[in-house]
Structures are given as C-alpha cells and as structure tokens.
Write a structure and sequence with these properties.
The chain is of the alpha+beta class. It contains three helices and nine strands.
C-alpha cells in the first residue's frame, strides 16, 4: 500500500464509575489503570503511550474529524521545518503544519497531525486502502455519545464508514459482567482506521 500510515498502538480508557483516591485527578493514568475492570496496578509501568501522530493528507478535513466530530481540543498549532531524516517524511527543509490535540487527559492519549505542505507529499490524492493488513494498526477512541460522533464523522469528506453504528458485547474478565460498547469503525480522511466507541456499562 503506497504511503501507508502505520500508527503506534494507542489505548483510550473510558470514564468509569470508580471514585479516584483523595487528591488524585479523575482523569489520571493511575485512576484509569484501577478503573479497568477493577484491575490493580501495584507498581508504575515505566512506559506510557503518549501520542499517536498522523501524516495528514488534508489538515482541514483532519481537524473536522478529530476536533469537530470527536470533540478533541487543539492545544498546539505551528509550522515546523522537517529534517527528512530523523522523522523520515518529506525532504530536508520542507515546511509542515503540526497540530496537537488532546482529550480529557492533559498528558496521555494525544493525537498529532503533521501536514507537509511546502513542498506537498506525493500521493495525497490517491485512494487509501480500506482493508487492514499485517503491520497496520487501528486507533480506539472513547466518547460520551458514540451515535452523534459516528454520525458527524460520516458527513466529513474523505471519511469511509465500514458499517453502521452497532452494539458490541465483549466477555467480562475473570467472571465479571460482559462489557457493552456502542460505536462504529471508520477510516479517517487520511486512511487511518479508527474505532469510535462508548462504554455503556
């Protein structure tokens, strides 16, 4: 697949009913860890998945998806100069717009959008693949209203819906109740596979 975008794995944790410890932010990674079906994390893991960054075909359409449909917040927007070496995209000295967006957590689970524009990358207008293959990945995002997010996403030019919004039920862990999730799967305007879901229980 030409110009395939391969994402690092990203874990998004939905808000849940457990109360955080005194003095601990509700959206902190520590709270999220404990909230995942009651699983206790005794020692801090040395690695966090901080951000997924996407080489954007079209910044405006990408922002329509991540900012407007998913409700993420833009917290950084600037023009950078690419080396073309360390991050192997574009040619040395090329200009690119870099936008960073966050969800509820002020540090974790961000999405970055990098759009080289001077000169532009080849292949921006080519159709993207709509089947996943070994080595590709998909992003999972949680939202408070999956029906609305999926509907809003479906109206954005360049977004491909793989099916209607539906209910999915996953077996609970260690005899706990089944996990009910409502959502949809889409390809964003860049061809990145995204699962939009809402944790119901």
């Amino acid at each position: 697949m030409r110009n395939a975008i391969v994402l690092a794995g990203m874990v998004a944790v939905a808000a849940c009913t457990q109360t955080p410890s005194e003095g601990e932010p509700a959206g902190s990674p520590q709270t999220a860890n404990r909230a995942m079906e009651g699983v206790e994390i005794e020692a801090r893991i040395p690695t966090d998945v901080r951000r997924v960054s996407i080489i954007a075909r079209d910044m405006d359409k990408s922002l329509e998806f991540y900012r407007d449909a998913l409700g993420m917040e833009v917290n950084y927007d600037t023009v950078v100069e690419l080396s073309g070496v360390n991050l192997p995209v574009g040619e040395p000295g090329a200009k690119a717009r870099l936008v960073l967006l966050n969800g509820n957590d002020p540090y974790m689970g961000w999405v970055g959008l990098l759009h080289p524009f001077e000169p532009a990358l080849e292949g921006n207008d080519e159709p993207y693949a709509t089947r996943l293959a070994p080595g590709t990945a998909f992003m999972v995002v949680n939202t408070d209203d999956a029906e609305k997010a999926c509907e809003d996403a479906s109206k954005i030019e360049g977004v491909t819906m793989t099916g209607p919004t539906r209910l999915q039920v996953y077996p609970g862990r260690d005899g706990r109740p089944d996990i009910e999730v409502r959502g949809c799967n889409v390809f964003d305007p860049n061809g990145v596979a995204v699962e939009i879901n809402q944790l119901l229980n």
